[in-house]
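Design a sequence for this backbone.
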């Protein structure tokens, strides 16, 4: 029967970048597959059965929806980054240049190269990169509402806006058998290392080790946050005395009134239990 693949294109991704290159990406994919189906989205309800691969042209939001389908079916996922963040691609070593990424997908299809990576699971939802709550989730929510500036600078602007109002709050955190009750500013549970277009919040996270890396920022003033945030690009925030790290397979967070997001997508739950599921996602490459 040959290789049957689908290309899911989210045309608004990257301020229209995905739409502009969709035709070129599709043409190149057709050189390596026998049947290619073009899709407007990658939600589980919209995808056909019997696929040999699902390729997503888009950013982390698009990939998040595709992961829900691939984790449930075992369908291999191919990534062609075209968003503003592309943090899963970074975490998996996928080329950030879309054409190089397409070539990598074609090579993996041709050679039948698949690998299994871990996913997080929370409240019926899979996540591939970072689940966060507190200050960083509030920043993510604000950044999603902004239309300017483009790219990672939008996240930087959202950080400045949130600094004015955010306060540490009481949190109860259970990481496997370790139990913490503290005033915290943010908690990030990393399956991979980055969020916010390359901010290395959990720099040691490995999506193949069966464990989350957890970064906790305790009580922090505005001045503390202004010192911590610039170091996120390079993982230097771990040096600050308000920051501590943990590793665990299961994490429970109880907090009141905090926003929560996974893979940059806002979630509605407030008390959450996240579990790392080893090898839950098959990726091309």
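Sequence:
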């Amino acid at each position: 029967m040959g290789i049957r693949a689908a290309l899911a294109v989210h045309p608004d991704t990257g301020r229209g970048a995905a739409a502009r290159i969709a035709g070129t990406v599709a043409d190149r994919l057709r050189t390596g597959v026998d049947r290619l189906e073009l899709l407007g989205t990658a939600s589980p309800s919209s995808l056909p059965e019997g696929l040999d691969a699902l390729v997503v042209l888009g950013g982390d939001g698009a990939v998040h929806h595709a992961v829900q389908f691939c984790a449930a079916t075992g369908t291999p996922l191919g990534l062609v980054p075209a968003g503003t963040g592309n943090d899963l691609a970074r975490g998996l070593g996928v080329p950030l240049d879309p054409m190089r990424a397409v070539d990598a997908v074609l090579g993996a299809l041709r050679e039948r190269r698949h690998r299994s990576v871990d996913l997080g699971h929370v409240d019926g939802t899979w996540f591939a990169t970072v689940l966060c709550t507190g200050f960083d989730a509030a920043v993510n929510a604000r950044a999603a509402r902004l239309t300017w500036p483009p790219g990672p600078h939008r996240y930087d602007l959202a950080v400045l806006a949130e600094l004015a109002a955010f306060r540490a709050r009481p949190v109860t955190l259970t990481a496997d058998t370790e139990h913490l009750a503290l005033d915290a500013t943010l908690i990030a549970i990393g399956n991979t290392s980055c969020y916010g277009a390359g901010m290395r919040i959990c720099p040691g996270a490995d999506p193949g080790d069966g464990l989350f890396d957890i970064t906790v920022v305790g009580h922090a003033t505005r001045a503390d946050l202004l010192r911590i945030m610039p170091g996120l690009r390079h993982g230097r925030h771990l040096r600050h005395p308000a920051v501590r790290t943990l590793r665990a397979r299961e994490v429970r967070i109880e907090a009141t009134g905090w926003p929560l997001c996974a893979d940059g997508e806002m979630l509605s739950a407030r008390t959450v239990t996240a579990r790392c599921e080893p090898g839950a996602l098959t990726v091309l490459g």
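The CA atoms of residues 110 and 285 lie 10 Å apart.
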